Amino acid sequence: MSQPLLLFQVKETKYFASALYDHEKQQLDAITVFVGKASVIPQSVSDLSRQAVYKSVATILGREELEFQSDPADPRTAHLISENETVSKRGT
Questions:
Q1: In this structure, is residue 48 part of a structural domain?
Q2: How many domains, the chain?
C-alpha cells in the first residue's frame, strides 16, 4: 500500500509541513516544513522544536486533527500521540 502525502500544521507555530502517512505504523515519514516558498527538512528550521507536534489538516481515515510528535532521534519521522474521536462527515 502506498503512503499518501498529507498536509499538517506544526502546532503552536506559523509553519505547515507535508509528510507521508504510514497507516500500519501510525507514523509520519519524510517530513518537510514549508518556509516561505521552500520545503525544507525540519532540523534546518532554527525556531522549530525537536519535539515538534504535527496536527493533521485533512482527515485521516475519517478522524480529524490527529497529532504526531517528532522522533528526537530522527526529526523526519513522527509518531501518533493523540486522536480526536470525532469522525468527519466529509469522509476524506
A1: yes
A2: 1
Residue 49 lies in a domain: yes
* Beta strands per DSSP E along the chain: 5-10, 16-22, 27-35, 38-40, 53-56, 67-71, 74-82
Predicted TM-score (pTM) of the model is 0.86
Alpha carbons 62 and 44: distance in angstroms, whole number:
32
φ and ψ of 10, to 5 deg: -80, 110
- What pLDDT digit, counting tens, does each position of 14-36 carry? 999 999 999 999 999 999 999 99
Rama region for 34: left / alpha / beta (φ>0; ψ in -120 to 50; rest): beta
What is the DSSP secondary structure assignment for residue 83, as one 8-state letter? -
Tell me the one-letter amino acid at 81: I
User: Is position 92 within any domain?
Assistant: no
Cell numbers 534546518: residue: 44
Phi-psi group of 12: left, alpha or beta (phi > 0 → left; psi -120 to 50 → alpha; rest → beta): left
Q: What does the DSSP 8-state code read for residue 42?
A: G
